[in-house]
Amino acid sequence: MVTLRKQYAVARPVYSEDSLAEDHNKVYRQNKTIVDHMREYLTWDLKRAKNSAVSLLPIISWMRTYSVREWLLGDVVSGISTGMVAIMQGLAFSLLASLPPSYGLYTAFFPMLTYFFLGTSRHISVGSFPVLSLMVGAVVTRLVPEVGPPANITGFEDLTQEQQRVLVASSVTFLMGIFQLAMGILQVGFIVVYLSDTLVSGFTTAAAIHILVSQLKFVLGLTVPGISGPLSIIYTLKEIFDQITSTNICDLVMSIAIMMVVFIVKELNDKYKAKLPVPIPIEVFMVRETLKADISLGIHPAFFQESAVEAFPIAIVGFAVAFSVAKVYSIKHDYTIDGNQELIAFGVSNIFGASFRSFAASTALSRTAVQESSGGKTQIAGLISAAMAMIVTLALGFLLEPLPTSVLGALVIVNLKGMLVQFREIPYLWIRDKPECVVWVGTCLGAILLGLDLGLVVGLGVELLTVVYRTQFPRCSVLANIPGTDLYKDRKDYTHISEIPGVKIFRIPSPIFFANIEFFRDKLVETVGFNPLRVLRKRNKALRKINKRLQKKEDDVTELFGTTDGSSMNVDGQERPSDLKDLPFRVDWRAELPVDVTVPRVDLHSLILDFSAVSFLDISALKGLKALKEFIRVDVEVYIVSCDECILEKLHSCRFFDEEILTSMFFPTLHDATLHRDSVKYIHVCTFYACNDSLLKTNPTHFLLFAVE
């Protein structure tokens, strides 16, 4: 069946950028200065004050539209469901931070109290996250190792090892919150874009490996000291295998049984999630006992200097994960989130939580999925889940005894499934985008071997290298016309495509700057098949040879050709064509030349550069583009098409144009340039092959007369 396609026909003049500006008035915008921006920022009125208040307290905007009848029941059910998961994850993830399990309950409660008022996401569940817990735990074990004395820091005097570890964790969290709050105030929430989904996936997979290894000692019932730093995972595995014969069989069997039951029930939850009103809280049924805890206050500034290097990447990772998850659900439910306000919200939440001995808070995808899928509409569900954590901490604590760490370790390992299955992304990325695959593998291996903090730096470095690679070595292409249309596509991609004889259309698919300008020039020379500067030098040399030969025969010819005997170099050091304005003929360099005159043949007469994908040029690029003069000097017409307005403005402001590179070379579309080129007539007055080589040798005057004809 033939598909009927719509047709369109446009009749208009062939435009260059100059003629387009003549026919259509152009608006010249004046950019604001720094002073203008400062004046606008410091100018306040009632409307702006109101908007600022709503921006700083997002609860105002969604509370005004809250529907009690439609949303409250869903929020209550969601809060209870999420609260049970948050309690179990808080207890389990606290082990990753090398803290007693009860402190995970504080993380499920205190940060949520402030995020409720300051956060812009209505669906994320604020609390512990395994990757952050592990990163905090690395600082804790470095400053307060299980074996050996703690670091020599003021504030450790007369404290037990547990109290020292809690003090370190809360201080790191407090500093993390300060970093996040400062970034939010400085409006640098955009930094999260540098953590791509591929990098985060590789990083969290490496974190899952670290978490798995760290929990093996609890599952096996072994006493393995906490090890931090590069290659810590190797040393930890060595310690575990050295003690493997001392495995506590009871702990191992109980852990395996718990993992199997929890895994099966979680799979059933996923399979029947459409039919279940809420997921089955299997972790609650597996946990028979929890911990009693007392709340103690305070952080210690003396630890800030010792942990600042680790606290900054923890702040970045915590925000990146939370923002990524929040963005998914904001798109799904059609509302906006503000990255800078999220930084402020998490910064205040972590500062507030650290004051009450909680550790680093962010969000977990699995917990957020429970909150959203069970009917949660707003952060009232989060507030209810936090209240449940506090009830367990205070009201039910006297009924509970300490949990075996093997139980919590088993729960942690089961919850790693979502991160560990990300290994399946490797073949997918390798087939579809090899540089992205390199980012994933490089980040994952770096984080596994060097630790999460250094691994994040390695991942960012690899990601930066891939960006440099893509922009420094872009895929340039030669375009050709699809017959009967004004469309131009890569000539390698279509079978029936027409490449215009004597014309090359060269497309540059990236910005042009200092790192790729030489690559661009080399590719251009490779595309056209000749080096214009070399051709120009050969032509000048050939003309000097002819001039010298003619001078030997007649003195009057010397006067005629005197202008070609001098140097063809300009004062700027660039090769110039010999001055032929006084010659009685013109040379067609594309014709047959005398036997002893060797000049590379140039069949190209037009070069069109497609700048539609060029987003910016730097000064190095402008200097490099001056080399287009070399093509003009060997009689190749150069056209630049689809150039962005900002680039044209920069070319004018940088005085790019001169007597050779003209504004008339620029066209709004490829087809305009092609049609303009077709309308230009080339008149060849004379050619070398019109004379005989022997005639030139014997009678140069005859050659001149023949040429004039």
Automatic annotation (TrEMBL):
Cited SUPFAM superfamilies: SpoIIaa-like (SSF52091)
Domain of life according to the entry: Eukaryota
UniProt GO cellular component terms: membrane
Topology class, membrane: Multi-pass membrane protein
MF annotations from Gene Ontology: secondary active sulfate transmembrane transporter activity
Transmembrane segments: 71-97, 103-119, 218-237, 249-265, 311-331, 343-360, 380-400, 438-465
CDD domains: STAS_SulP_like_sulfate_transporter
Source organism: Gasterosteus aculeatus aculeatus (three-spined stickleback)
Compartments it resides in: Membrane
Protein name in the entry: STAS domain-containing protein
Domain STAS as annotated: residue spans: 493-677
